[in-house]
Amino acid sequence: MVPLIILIAIIAGIISIAAAIYFTVMVMKKDRGNEKMIEISGYIETGAKHFLWVQYLVLAAFVGFLFFVILLFLPSEMTDGIIPVIAGDLNWEQALAYLIGSAASMFAGWLGLIVGVKTNTRAAQGVTKSVKEGFDIAFFGGSVMGLAVVGVALLGVGGIYWIFEPLVGLAFATKVVLGFSFGASTIALFMKCGGGIFTKTADVGADLVGKAEYNLPEDDIRNPATIADNVGDNVGDIAGMGSDLLDSYVASIVAAMILGTTFGALGFEIYFVILPILIAGVGLVASLIGIFLVKWLGRENPGKALNLGTYLATLMVAAFAAILIWILTAQIPSAKTQLWRDYFAILIGLASGIVIGWTSDYFTREDKPPTKNIALAAEEGHAVTILSGFSYGLISVVPPALGIIVAMAVSFMLDGVFGVALAAVGMLSIVGTIVSNDAFGPIVDNSRAIAEQGGLGEDVIRKADMLDAAGNTAKAITKGFAIGSANLTVLALLFSFAEEAGIVTMNLLDIKILIGAFIGVVIPALFSALLILSVQKNAAKMVLEIRRQFKENPGILKGTEPADFNKTIAIATKGALVELILPSIISFTIPVIVGLIFGVAALGAFLAGAILSGFVFAIMMSNSGGAWDNAKKWIEEGNLGGKGTETHKAAITGDTVGDPFKDTSGPSINTLLVVMSLTSSVFMGLMLAVGADGLIGGLLDESAVGDVAIWIILLVILAAVLVGILLWAIMKVVKHPKVMEKIAKKKD
């Protein structure tokens, strides 16, 4: 029987969704501004809806396929570890949860995106009254995404466990919830990768032609890609980042629940299974209070209000969690010591999240030494700008790595791997506040553009710039938080995977373990390369289209004829959806292939290798990109000669390189790691049905050294597959210079 205290989390989820709807109604009542502003906002809204509709159609087919795979072919405890179609049964519990998780993630993304694109023009009009008015509108619009993410997550996880635990038992109920997490993760991968490719296709194309060739101002309505760029801010930073954090949030809860079945106090395991859900529930309450505090504190310093709201939410989680633990100790006094140890593990997670956010802030803010040094490097030329930004990105990996190490070590000493899992839950307990802050960024970015394009005047644009600057800082902190939380989450998932697979140790001197680790190390690199090449390829098409419009319709540059925004939006939409297919296939299939061929122990090593290398790539690319971006903006404020100088052009080069780093590849690695970890856990039954050592894992043991002929043939086949992938990647690279030659030509 599930303790009724779980209703705290379920009720909090309902309140969260109700609050999201309330904020939606409140924002929709605000003034939309003049006719020009309404027209521009309409373009953005139409483009965002079109992209979301097409992406959801593709997702529906993919989700449907995986639903039937889980239903018919995935062994579970309910089918006694036998493939369902062979057992004459169906794995309907996990399949249904997977479908609900996918639908929940799609709903949260849809609601947040639609409200976001409707808020931008209202926020711009609000700035005409005061910075505080514009801030309130934008923040409450962004809060809809934050509250929707946490609400659907808690309702899904808490509700599914509450319903299924009496039906299937303590342990398998957590596996059913794992299906919900896998569904959310599936959507997150498509949303984050697709949105990232879309937004940077438009952004890079707009900058290369509009800024570099024609010296058009930022967000100039004459630039054919400017609306696509604004659409991209929403699909990439609202829907994409929201789905990413929903993915990590649910996965952290599920990993801790699975470990709770084994490491909870004997006889009281169910309390430790629902503890992560309860912590998430009190975190949601703290986030709700924090959102109202941010409104009250906003005044004329939006950046300070956003940060203070986050800190206050963190302190409230610490206080509410202490009350929760005290209540639980009254119910199970024999587990008092373990519960308080778990409380301090949660605090460690909260603290490490703040530290990682500070690190991202330091390495990307324009008034901090790293960003200023990159701007100074731009005086020496384009190449030095790239070298400087890349180097600071690498340096920025060290502080968060130390934070994760300390969090892991201390939480492990407190309560073993369950403590580590709860540290991840603690870090993500304020995700409602974090997503609200993140969604605020693209809303004020769009509102600044609409203020300029709607002719609201320099004073209003200056005030909108204040909000935009606060939004940029919030987005940088959010990306750092997302990367840190994702890595702590996948470490918890790795522990839960090892526990379920019966892996005690992974000996790197075992050749199959080493092979698994090696494959894992290279996957984030391959994944990143594919996403960046996708941006390069699609940006090339965007550049050619912008030049074509300027050439064929000179009235666009004169401001007498409108640009064809639909054409550029269509290029970004088609390119994003086509190019994300291969990275998505890699994310889902490689873990299964490794597990089937080399065994579950090698798959554990694969995940460990991917986590370690993915952490480095994600932090480095996100912070490098953010620093390049803000170095350019610092110069544009009038420093080092300002706009139009050679220094400014070198900074634009850095920003252009950094765009796919910080908004496409870097953040998407978070989702990649969670997806691969969940795929490994969900499909573990299938791998164990084949054999714990996989198809050829046994042939790589020392006892099978003499069976040379068999495993050499198999390894040759595997090598041929890997060579095929490598050749394909090389062809992609070789193909791009032909497109880039056209871009390199001087404009007619």
Instruction: Output the structural class.
Output: mainly alpha
What proportion of the residues is helical, as a percent range?
Answer: over 70%
Q: SSE order in H/E notation?
A: HHHHHHHHHHHHHHHHHHHHHHH
Beta-strand residue percentage: under 5%
Mean pLDDT: 85
Tell me the overall shape. globular
The number of helical segments is: 23
Rg:
25 Å
Q: What profile does the largest beta sheet have?
A: none
Residue runs with pLDDT of under 50 for 5 or more positions? 737-748
N- to C-terminal distance: 75 Å
The tally of strands reads 0
Question: What topology does this entry show?
Answer:
Layout: H1 7-28, H2 35-73, H3 84-87, H4 92-127, H5 131-168, H6 170-211, H7 226-263, H8 269-298, H9 302-331, H10 336-364, H11 369-377, H12 382-395, H13 398-428, H14 431-453, H15 458-501, H16 511-552, H17 555-558, H18 565-579, H19 581-598, H20 600-636, H21 646-682, H22 684-690, H23 708-744
